[in-house]
Every structure is written in structure tokens, then in C-alpha cells.
Write a structure and sequence with these properties.
The chain has helices spanning about 5-75, 90-100, 135-140, 225, 260-335, 335-350, 360-380, 405-415, 450-460, 470-480; strands at about 110-115, 120, 150-155, 160-170, 170-180, 195-200, 205-210, 230-235, 240-245, 250-260, 360, 385-390, 400, 420-430, 435-440, 485-490, 495-505. It is an alpha+beta fold. The chain has two domains: about 5-260, 2-Layer Sandwich (Beta-Lactamase); about 300-510, Histidine kinase-like ATPase, C-terminal domain (Heat Shock Protein 90, 2-Layer Sandwich), CATH 3.30.565. It has a five-stranded antiparallel sheet with strand order 2-1-5-4-3.
Length: about 500
């Protein structure tokens, strides 16, 4: 069966809840986009830029060392005291100075003989760690003809880049050429990023950093950061997003975003979105429930009203046809009675077609019942015996207009006993909140099969037979008053009792 209220509720939910859900999802997607743009992408960009800078630095120092090494090999006996004679030393220094200054970075250069003595340099003294040919990078350069790069620790939180190459002539070691660069020289002057960048050696010792990078007591990167790549990690009191790149010669580059405050804002924003969505869902569901109920009630009332009118129209033709048949006979038999019947019929027709009346006072409706029974009394004469007992408390109750007339008509039609007598009783009582109307006849009554069919009709709420009278009355009462009301058929030893049950509402209560 088509459920109008369900369909309406589904439509309202679709067009009200769906936009709210869409807005909430879009808001969460915007938070995700913001995270990806302001954290992930910027982190990757900063790390990539520093990686490119380190790659360029490595390429530059190799080119410089090749030039310097070649010049020293052309110089000949550059490490002896003869270098100080004439202008050879000045010329060599000028070449070295001009060559180094062509690079992007401000390198310090040192020319050292094989004994470890400084021959020429941009500074007058060798940095600590380069003054012993048997230690560190100096030792390793003796075993390698290629350019070698390492880090030279200057303090607990600072290391310098050192690149060097041994100078050989005819297979004999002549000395060394070295370039050094402070780690902080990687950063442009005044650079201030909201991303912390750090360069470390292969053991995560800090070489250079910008920002407040968490270190341990030995100048190494905090172990939690060192173990993280492309993920979040907490180092009290901050939470970081960390990515890493590994370059040749053990160089590591890390981009670190402090994101605790941002995560808190995202979390609060997400919770607010979820809370707003939940509130919207509750408000929408409540509004949809209320609106669908009101609209369904309106439609049901209109439908019920239309069906009540349709059912009333079914009563009236039967009544009119039977009454006119009676008048046709009475015109010949008793003209005065026919005139009286016509007056009663006219009053009943005016009452019946008055569409402004759906529910009426029981006492008023009884007047038209009396007119109807008077018409029938003229037809059947002494064969029809009618009596009624009406409780005084029931007279002010409301009932559907002409409710009892079709039942009385059925009782007259089927209620004759074996002698042809028609005994009809109308009993009306009011108990608590129930109005009970009993119409009793003395006819043959319902067969068991007919009663079974009647019960089946009540259960299915659909009349599949050609007998519409009592079912229409039952349907009409239920449309007006709900499932607790309706028609009951009560078999008797002789005859039948048709009981109508309605709520005992007084007209003054409307």
C-alpha cells in the first residue's frame, strides 16, 4: 500500500538532510585540503629546495677543487720555500681567491703541504681538526684520489662542511687543497620559515638548522624525529610532521613542521562541524517528522472527507429510491399520508444535501430518524413496530449525519419475522467516553458464513462483496473517529443486533 507519509518524509530528508551532509563533507574536505596544502606540500617544497641547494653546493665544491688542484699541479714546487720568492705566492693566492669567489657560497680555502703545514689560505690558521695529517679527513684523503666531503664539528651544536682532495704529482703526494663552509651559510640572510629545516650527518648529528629543532644532549637530532619520515611524531611539548631526504656522503635533510596548534584548530573545527551536523540532523529530522505528519494528516483529512462524502452519496440514492417507491403507492391508497411523506422526504433531502453538516447533535439527528420512520410507518402500517430508548446523557453527543438511517433501512428490509412482523428497537446509551447505538431486529439474522465474511472484511478493511451498506457505515465511522470505533454485528436467539460504537464527544467540546 502506498504510504504517503513515508514518501513525503523520504523526500524531505533527501532535499533537506542531503545539503547539510554535503556541506559538512565539503567542510571536512576543506580541512583535509588545508592540511595537505599548508603542511604536506609546503614541507615537501622546503625540503626539496634545500635538497637542490645541497646538491648545487656539492657540485660547486667539486668543480672548485678540480680547478684548484689543476692550478697547483701546474705551479710545480708550490710547497717549498721558493714559493715566497718573487711574486709567485701572490699570483697563486690571487688565482685561488678569484676562483673561490666565483662560486655561490663564500668558501674558506686552505692549501696544506704533505706535512700538514698551511701554505696558503683565506684564513691565517687552520680550523681545529685539519691541522693533523694523521687524523680525520686528512688521513682519509691520503687514501683517496677523489674529492671527499665530511663534516667538521666546531661545537656541540655546530658543524662545518669540509671538502678536500689530495694533490699528487707523478704518483707522489704533494699536499692537500680543502674548502670549508659553515653550516649556517646554507640559510639566506634574514630567512624566517614556519618550517624547521635541519641538515645532519648519517648519525643525525646536527650540521645546520633553522628553527628550534629538538636535539638531545649530544647535539643529535631527537631520536623520535630521526625515526620518522612522512608522519606525525610527538616530542613534548610539540607535535611535528617530519619528512626526510638522504643525499650522498651521508647527508640527511629533514623538514619539520610544528603542528600541535594547527591540529588543535583542525580538531576543534572538525568537532564543530560534526556537532553542527548532528544538531542539523536532529532539527531536520524533527522538522521533517512534524512537517510530514502535519501534511499527511492534512491529506488524510482531505481524503477521509472525500471518502465520507462519497459514502454519504451512496446512502442517499438508496433512501430516496425506496421512499419514492413508498410515496407512489401511498398516493393511491392514502393521499393525505402521501403529502405527509413528501414533506418528510423534503426535510430529509434538505438535511441530507446540506454539505456544511458532517457531524451533528444526536438529538437533532433523531428528529430526522423520526421523519424517516414515519415514512416507513405509512408504508408498512401495523406490520412495523418501532420503539426507542435514548439516554438523556447521549442527546448532546455528536454523530455523523444520518448515521442510523441506513441501519434502520437494513433492519426494515431484512428484519421481518416468520409472520412478516418487523420489530425494530433503537437503544442509545452513553458509558464513560463511549456512545453505543444498538439497532435490533427480529429477523432471521446472519448465517455463520455471512458473519465470517463480515469479520474478514473488517480485518482487510476492504469490501470485496456487493453488500456495501454496513461496511460503508463502519468505514465512515472509522474515517471520522479512528480504529477504536465502528460497527459490530451481534447475533441473537431471534434477530440481529447491529451495534455502533463512537467516542462520546459532546458538541460543546468541539
Amino acid at each position: 500500500m502506498y504510504n504517503f507519509q513515508y514518501e513525503l518524509r523520504q523526500a524531505l530528508l533527501k532535499y533537506a538532510l542531503l545539503p547539510a551532509l554535503l556541506i559538512s563533507v565539503l567542510s571536512l574536505l576543506l580541512i583535509g585540503y588545508s592540511w595537505n596544502h599548508y603542511v604536506v606540500e609546503r614541507n615537501a617544497t622546503a625540503r626539496q629546495q634545500l635538497t637542490e641547494k645541497m646538491t648545487a653546493l656539492h657540485t660547486e665544491n667539486q668543480q672548485l677543487l678540480v680547478l684548484l688542484n689543476g692550478r697547483l699541479q701546474q705551479q710545480g714546487d708550490w710547497h717549498s720555500d721558493e714559493l715566497s720568492a718573487g711574486g709567485e705566492k701572490a699570483a697563486l693566492y690571487d688565482f685561488l681567491y678569484r676562483t673561490v669567489n666565483k662560486g655561490k657560497y663564500l668558501w674558506n680555502f686552505y692549501i696544506i703541504d704533505k706535512a700538514g703545514h698551511l701554505v696558503l689560505g683565506s684564513k691565517s690558521q687552520l680550523p681545529a681538526g685539519l691541522d693533523d695529517p694523521e687524523w680525520g679527513i686528512m688521513r682519509r684523503l691520503q687514501e683517496d684520489t677523489q674529492v671527499r666531503g665530511e663534516f667538521l664539528r666546531q661545537s656541540a651544536d655546530r658543524q662545518d662542511f669540509v671538502f678536500g682532495q689530495a694533490v699528487w704529482q707523478q704518483g707522489v703526494l704533494q699536499g692537500y687543497v680543502l674548502l670549508t663552509l659553515p653550516g649556517d651559510a646554507l640559510w639566506e640572510k634574514g630567512q624566517n620559515l614556519d618550517i624547521e629545516l635541519v641538515v645532519t650527518d648519517e648519525r643525525y648529528n646536527k650540521v645546520a638548522a633553522i628553527g628550534n629543532v629538538p636535539l638531545d644532549g649530544q647535539g643529535k637530532l631527537a631520536a623520535q624525529l630521526a625515526a620518522t619520515n612522512g608522519n606525525l611524531v610527538e616530542v613534548q611539548p610539540e607535535i611535528y610532521y617530519v619528512t626526510q631526504s638522504v643525499l650522498p656522503q651521508g647527508v640527511r635533510i629533514l623538514a619539520i613542521n610544528p603542528v600541535r596548534s594547527l591540529l588543535i584548530r583542525y580538531l576543534l573545527g572538525s568537532l564543530l562541524i560534526v556537532l553542527l551536523f548532528a544538531v542539523l540532523v536532529l532539527v531536520i529530522l524533527g522538522s521533517v517528522q512534524r512537517e510530514s505528519r502535519l501534511r499527511a494528516q492534512t491529506v488524510e483529512k482531505l481524503t477521509a472527507a472525500a471518502e465520507v462524502r462519497q459514502l454519504e452519496s451512496q446512502f442517499n440514492p438508496h433512501f430516496l429510491f425506496n421512499t419514492l417507491e413508498n410515496i407512489k403507492f401511498m398516493v393511491k391508497l392514502n393521499p393525505q399520508a402521501a403529502v405527509r411523506m413528501i414533506k418528510d422526504l423534503s426535510a430529509l433531502l434538505r438535511y441530507s444535501i446540506n454539505n456544511s453538516l458532517v457531524k451533528v447533535r444526536l438529538g437533532d439527528d433523531l428528529e430526522y430518524v423520526h421523519r424517516y420512520m414515519e415514512i416507513q410507518q405509512y408504508r408498512f402500517g401495523q406490520r412495523l413496530l418501532y420503539e426507542e430508548q435514548v439516554a438523556e446523557a447521549a442527546l448532546d453527543c455528536e454523530i455523523p449525519k444520518l448515521l442510523m438511517q441506513p441501519v434502520l433501512e437494513n433492519a426494515i428490509k431484512y428484519g421481518a419475522d416468520k409472520q412478516g412482523k418487523i420489530n425494530i428497537s433503537l437503544l442509545i446509551s452513553r458509558a464513560a467516553e463511549v456512545l453505543q447505538v444498538d439497532i435490533i431486529d427480529s429477523g432471521a439474522g446472519f448465517t455463520p458464513e455471512a458473519l465470517t465474511r463480515w469479520q474478514q472484511m473488517l480485518q482487510t478493511a476492504e469490501n470485496l462483496t456487493e453488500h456495501t451498506g454496513l461496511f460503508n457505515i463502519h468505514r465512515r465511522i472509522q474515517l471520522l473517529y479512528g480504529a477504536g470505533s465502528g460497527v459490530q454485528i451481534i447475533p441473537r436467539l431471534q434477530g440481529t443486533c447491529v451495534r455502533l460504537r463512537l467516542p462520546a464527544h459532546g458538541m460543546e467540546e468541539e
